[in-house]
Specification:
Elements (H helix, E strand, L loop, with lengths): L9 H19 L3 E5 L4 E6 L13 E6 L3 E3 L2 E4 L4 E10 L9 E6 L1 E3 L5 E3 L4 E5 L4 H7 L21 E5 L4 E5 L1
Antiparallel strand pairs: 1-12, 2-3, 2-11, 3-6, 4-5, 6-7, 7-10, 8-9
Length: 174
């Protein structure tokens, strides 16, 4: 009696492997990379009311992305993403009608792949209302009006600013 060794059905195996690879390819290549160029604008809006009495330099104040940032038809930064601003400097109103102001900086924003994209180190200065003219005009009547102060720097919800990306970054899109 001769022993025969079982053989694999090679001609039938190749088409099965090709079919399996063909079906698996969309799953593997589903994630695409999108290039977010340096200088891409992002429109932000203030989420809540900013009262300078409640903040100090070093504290954070939140903005959110107003609308999706879309590149090549793909969303790279989603609408509603929270972007913290660092309160860099805060000044109270001063005499002779000088307004108060706040300086804000932004470090980064989170992309749809949860990667942090660095933002340009711009300083945004928001001033309160000046009363300098009123103070100077009324000081002609009385020296007491020299002590009239300007208004603090309040930020209303919905206040919009535009920031930009610092570097070119590759984002993975599912």
């Amino acid at each position: 009696m001769t022993k025969t060794t079982p053989r694999a059905n090679v001609p039938g195996l190749l088409p099965s492997l090709l079919l399996f690879g063909f079906l698996l390819t969309p799953l593997i290549s589903a994630a695409q990379s999108v290039r977010v160029p340096e200088g891409t604008d992002i429109k932000l809006e203030a989420i809540s009311f900013f009262n300078p009495e409640l903040y100090r330099p070093g504290s954070t104040y939140d903005f959110r992305v107003e609308r999706d940032v879309v590149i090549d038809g793909k969303v790279v930064i989603a609408r509603g993403t929270v972007v913290p601003a660092l309160v860099r400097r805060l000044e109270d109103p001063d005499f002779i009608g000088e307004p108060g102001f706040v300086e804000l900086t932004f470090k980064s924003v989170k992309a749809v792949d949860r990667q942090w994209i660095p933002l340009r180190n711009a300083i945004f200065k928001i001033e309160g209302k000046s009363r300098k003219k009123t103070s100077l005009l009324l000081s002609l009547l009385s020296d007491l009006f020299f002590f009239l102060k300007g208004e603090p720097a309040y930020i209303e919800p919905g206040t919009q600013i535009i920031i930009a990306t610092e570097d070119t970054v590759m984002i993975k899109i599912d």
